[in-house]
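Sat 14:20. Reprocessing the chain from the morning session after the first attempt stalled halfway. Input below, unchanged.
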Amino acid sequence: MQARTIPALPNKPERKRKSKRILWLVILLCIVLLAVLFFRSPISKIDKVTFIGQTFVTSERLGEATGLVAGAPYFTVSDNEVVATIKSTFPFVKSVKVNKHFPGKVEVFVEEFEAVAYELDAEGEVLASLVNGSSVSLSEMKAVVLEKPLLTGWKDKQALELKAKLTKQLIQIPDSLLADISEIVYDPSASFSDRIRMYTRSGFEVITTVDLLPTKLAYLSGVVETQEPGRITMLKADSYISYTNLAKNDHDVLDEQKNSTQ
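Finished this time. Tokens:
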């Protein structure tokens, strides 16, 4: 009697594996589709950019330099790139901090180097001299010149080198006294190559040097606060003479010269 063979049953586990592959493929396609829809939707874009703390540059210029504008991709914003771009493009910026708030909100906090004086360039444009030695144009902010001294005569190479040092010295002057200084003139002499002449809004003329300025502040403050307007000399020795006595001395000198010629 001949034995009959039973045909093998279909491989059910193989069908299950194919079903799982199809399921995972469908899930993957759904994820890709959702991702495409998400990144093309307004929720993935920058909705509002706020720059805080800047005074020497407009928000528009900061936005152009960094690419942080409404409608730009939110998730491609790199904090480090934004910081590096702003500091390299605008040398008057001291530090930058970026805060991102999903969805679509970006805040950029800008800290600038402090302005300690102002000056006019060859074209008559107002420049702010900052504590780090750099300068920045203030063509649209001329009103603030009243709050700081104006630098004049700082044009040659030696003067420019001293100006960077002077800005660091001025930051040590109390705000009330600095606001009283209206002009600082580069006035070198044979004995003092860094001599300066300062004029105050309260009527004083001050002669000193860039190097000596920080150590002479106490004397300067004392005279300005207690004496009538006059000339203050703060070099190797300190001296003060009122304009009244200065005019009298000049008159006496003229009288002596006149008498000697007779």
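Residues 154 and 183 are 12 Å apart (CA to CA).
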